From TrEMBL:
It holds the Pfam family DUF8051. This is DUF8051 domain-containing protein. The keyword Zinc does not apply. Keywords: Membrane, Transmembrane, Transmembrane helix. InterPro entries: DUF8051. Residues 6-119 form the DUF8051 domain. The chain crosses the membrane at residues 6-27, 39-62, 68-91, 103-122. The keyword Transmembrane helix applies.
Amino acid sequence: MNLTTSLILFLNVTLLSILVPGGPVENRDFDYLKKTPSIYYGFSIFLISLILISLALCYFVLLDNLWAFKVSLAAGALYFMVYILDLLKIFPRSPTPMSKMLMLIEIINMMLALLLVIFFSGQTVYLKQHLHFIIKTSQKNSATYIPNV
């Protein structure tokens, strides 16, 4: 289950990475964003951070860390927001229309992000319940355990 979750997260990272402006898929013009450097560089730093944090999360999810599932849930929501805002032409806007290939990749990314959110929210609930059961069981066992001296 962790492998599946990590794989979904990795696919989101990979598909976002190929959407770099001026790259093989993204051909829209965002020169107007450069007029306000805080927005341009802020958005770029946000996307790069999302990619780097998600790559690290792929590893920590495989290690079954509860905090990694919680952070991955947030990352999935952020991926979803990035794609839905772009597909609805809210941000970033461009005078150049979105190509069909770009739109297809963004729709796939958005569905993967939604899957991430659904999958991680289920994983987090399962892990919390499982962890609570382990703690409860260990407390019962420790109460009856008398070490030999």
